[in-house]
Amino acid sequence: MTLYGDKLPPADDRPTVQVTAVTWPATEAEPPRGTAGPDSAGSAPDPAAPRRGRRRRAVLTAGVVTVLLAVGAGAGGYAYAGEVPRGTTVLGTELGGMSRADAARALRAELDRRAVTLAAPVPVRIGDRTTEIKPADVGLTVDVDATVEAAVGTQAAPLSRLFGSRTVEPVVTVDAVRLEATLETAVGPQGRRMTMPKITYSGTTPKKVHPKPALTLDAQNSAEALREGWLSGEPVTVALVEKHPATTAEEVDRLVTELAAPAVAAPVTLTTEKGSVTIPANAIARSLSFPADKAGKLTPKLDVKKLRTALGDKLAAIEVEPRDAAMTLTGGKPTAVPSRPGRRLDDAALSRDLLAVLPKADGRTINGVLKPVDADLTTEEVTQFGIREKVSSFTTYFTGGLSSPRSKNIVQIAKDVDGTVVKPGETFSLNGHTGERSYKQGYHDAPVILNGKLVPGVGGGTSQFTTTLFNAIYYAGLEDVEHKPHSYWFSRYPAVIESTIFYPDLDFKFRNNTPHGVMIDTSYTSGSVTVAIWGTKIYDSVKTEYSPRRNITKPKIIRLEPGPSCIATNGIDGFTQDAYRIFRKDGKVVKREKFTWTYQAEPRFVCGP
Q1: What global pTM score does this model have?
Q2: Residue 163 to residues 69, 156, 349, Cα–Cα distance (Å)
Q3: What is the pLDDT of residues 18-31, one digit of tens each?
Q4: 430's torsion region: left (phi>0), alpha (psi -120 to 50) or beta?
Q5: Regarding the domain delimited by 259-381, which CATH topology (the fold level of the hierarchy) does it fall under?
């Protein structure tokens, strides 16, 4: 069939492309020169015909491409309008085609619309119990900016952005620490605390405790469950998980077999250039421990301080303790007592080497290294402190002479403190200086106040020295750091400005707040104790002004069972009073400090009916 009856149209009038014969892009072979093509109908060949065909096909191709590019450009412009891909929704809100800022505003508007729902308590199941959590209490919220970034996502292909749709889940945040604290109260008895592994000694016998896992919450798992389930409208299930200690039961057994038991099976010999010391099994047991960290990991540790205590005086045969420089009065003038360096075992090396040898059955000998140790206060330092004059002095009085236990305690603590030098800026602690006052240090049983009544106790009477020392530093103008007056007032002490002491709970401390060193000088007679502070005067005078006593209370009678622990008293009135410390310099008051104390009425204790 032809388009023009039975004849083909002239060559110049033919369609450029026969649709039924085109495969795009079309190619056409040029017939050989001098031969007639299939459409020549016997005519002579036209040399320009192939060029015109190719030109027309090029024009057609360019037109098609132009149309496609125009369509693509329009579609691309539509698809890529804004920063969020078309068809993107979050919480049912269309964000597609919006900029980040517009998307954030639209999402916040949706969250505001749902504010009541989002603030509602969230039911949470933990095992067989259910509780409710308020989102505000645990920082449960939708992170708008992070959600918009998730919505922007990776730039998709144009057709995907043009025709696709997607739902982006909101980014939910929660404070895992606050959540865990809130949920822990709801766990109840279904939870189980972790049993930590433990190795201790009963004498020289190792005792072990095998670990057991905890049944508890995992903070991160709980937070993830809440983030995923919050917006579903359904109760959120939080799982209880087992948490095992880092050290297993098998490892506890191995530590006992390989270290704890052989460690105390025999003594260890410590050798030094100054001689040898035997470390007995009981000293090893007192100093070797297996502390567990928070994860339940046991780590062997040798505490040299405890080892030294357990060895007592044994190390004195090989060590020389350093001696601090001190001050003493010679002919009424302060002079320096030189310091002396010492030699002590290297504690770090001792701990390391002793731990290494404890698992062994034989060859239990270690070499100790003696290192030089300087005094904390050298002679050069103490001579430069400016200790040259008496700044203050205070005396209190006692009865019974020097033979009574109470008097002996006063004298003993005065000797312990005598000659002590306190550096500029340093804080002096009376408990820290003397340590626990015991029989070994020369202290005796004498009445002390305990729970509001007088009972026998080691070191009774040291409060009188404490009061004497407090008043000496008070009138020297030094800084009061810690002191506590007695519960009852005793006439041998100045009211308000006095202090008790009890190891280790009640201490007396003062700070040398001057640019000069100070020396504590103590002395005593058969009926008094005196403390003088030497240094460099800062103030012309320090005096006390008292307010009248107020809130007077009378004692009541309390009857106690007779016996050696009962000490009878006559009773003392209670009252409240103020004491003002007045500092004067260059004839003027430069500072005032107020001290106030309320004394209880001391009951009249009667022994017997």
Answers
A1: 0.56
A2: 18, 11, 76
A3: 433 334 444 444 44
A4: alpha
A5: Ubiquitin-like (UB roll) (3.10.20)
